[in-house]
Amino acid sequence: MTRTHPRSWLFIPADSEKKLMKAPETGAHAIIVDLEDSVAFAAKAGARRTARDWLEAHKRQITTRKQARWVRINAVETGLWRDDLAAIMAGAPDGIMLPKAEGPEQIRLVAAEIYEHEQRNGLPNGHVRILPLVSETARAALTITSYVEASMPRLAGLTWGAEDLSAAIGASRKRDAAGQWTDTFRFIRAQTLLAAHARDVWAIDTLHADFRDEEGCRRAAEAARGDGFTGMLAIHPVQVPIINAAFAPTEAELAEAEAIVAAFAANPGAGTLQLDGRMIDQPHLKQARALLGIEAAPVRPL
Fold first, then answer.
1. pLDDT, tens digit, for every residue of 104-144?
2. What is the dihedral of CA 130, 136, 139, 145, to 10 degrees?
3. What is the pTM of this model?
């Protein structure tokens, strides 16, 4: 994978060969082949085969492809997830999205199964990462802070969703009259963001549900980046360029980052410096280096 920091994450139904064939054209940094909500129960077996074939086809391009390949399997509670992994792991996906994740124990359960499949398929230990959806049930939402300290070497990031949770708790609204998240969803979003940064993994904001509302998607993506998220989910290809643009650093931001890095390079022993009339310190340097890609994106398993 050429990008260590995917910004746009596009869901594509695993039972749509036509849509999967168009995945490279979308410009998404990460494709999430979906075996869960977008696939009816009766179609899941066929969807697994389609997903496996697509992964196999792109596996051969592993050194040149620009898109990360992820698969959203079914939730642990469904009992379908093991069949999902058995079907798709030969295709060496970059990662597994785990929906309705209810804490680190479920992550470790899935990780143990992934390890067995890596061994069977000749994949390096740890090749396949895990990205849990941490908010889709009330129980799941209450476990978000537990991800900070638990040992989960495969954990790539944290993301959240509002649609399933609203149904689970019987909420008739997710946003207020001004279009802002209501308290429950704002709390979960903040918890996800803080836990991801505390753990030093990717913080991926939820999708904008109305793909026809391009202006709303732009505002959501810009807010996500401004708040500190490292990427955002997408439900439709039309959202991908909007998200990519929102998360791309501007020329002014790049110039400032270069100036910060240069200032500290010229003063290697300094902890604090002045730049253009303001004080800069080590957190500014860390942020600048990350923006310029000098440091890897924040993925450091505990």
1. 999 999 999 999 999 999 999 999 999 999 999 999 999 99
2. 50
3. 0.86
